[in-house]
Amino acid sequence: MKKALSLTTLIVALTLALAGCGSNGADSSSGGSVSHNQQDVTFATDMIPHHLQAVQMAEMAQTQASLPAVRTLAEEIKAAQGPEIETMSGWLKGWGEDVPDESMGGMDGMDSGSSDSMPGMMSDQAMSDLGAATGDTFDQMWLESMIAHHEGAVQMSDTEIADGKDPDAVALAKSIKAAQTTEIATMKKLLAP
Q1: 143, 156 in Cβ contact below 8 A?
Q2: Which of 18, 49, 77, 112 could cysteine-pair with 104, CB 3.0–4.6 Å?
Q3: What whole-number distance in Å separates Cα of residue 172 and Cα of residue 73?
Q4: What residues does the DUF305 domain cover (predicted)?
Q5: How far is CA 168 from CA 28, 44, 89, 119, in A?
């Protein structure tokens, strides 16, 4: 017991020493607790359910879209956002914060109060309507909804870029902004007659 306790004490001491060395935020794996702020926590906590909803929407498109370009874009969105969810979940765990439940990305209560911090989130009713649509109607609804969803993610990313402290979180926000801005342009072209 005493040996296990001293090993734990040694690990904690080493972690604190490494965190002190890495306090410039360059190494967030060892200095994570030092290199982040509340905005980083808010960004990850809000972006996880935001991404989860986009993944749900992408899964719908894979079976309900009529345009091959919509299905392809949906696959790309799912492929990009799945790993980003894992990354942000890892940060929150490392920071000792709660990780949003995967069901939060769905249709549970996102259409009220929380939508201020998560712009672009679809309401329960809108998700239900999208789920019931098919063919050209689905494509139109999906593209319009995903454009709004992406615009919300870009807005959330801008806040993180401006106010975040963790270099990895800020870098992810920049990556999300760049990718989703490009996807918005693609979706607007698909909507154009």
Answers
A1: no
A2: 49
A3: 20
A4: 40-191
A5: 7, 11, 13, 22
**Measured distance CA(144)–CA(151) in Å, rounded:** 11
**Residue 53 and residue 85 in contact, taking contact as beta carbons nearer than 8 Å:** no
Structural domains of the chain sorted by starting position, each given as residue range(s) with its CATH number in brackets: 36-191 (1.20.1260.10)
- Residue 9 has phi, psi (to 5 degrees) of -60, -40
Tokens 């870098």: give the residue. Answer: 171
Which tokens hold the place of 10?
Answer: 């040694």
Judge contact between 108 and 100, C-beta under 8 A. Answer: no
One digit per residue, the tens of pLDDT, for the chain of length 193 reads 444 444 444 344 434 443 444 333 334 444 444 689 999 999 999 999 999 999 999 999 999 999 999 999 999 999 999 999 999 999 999 999 999 987 654 444 343 334 456 899 999 999 999 999 999 999 999 999 999 999 999 999 999 999 999 999 999 999 999 999 999 999 999 998 7
Handedness of CA 183, 112, 130, 55 (dihedral sign): positive
Q: Which two tokens stand for residue 163?
A: 């106010």
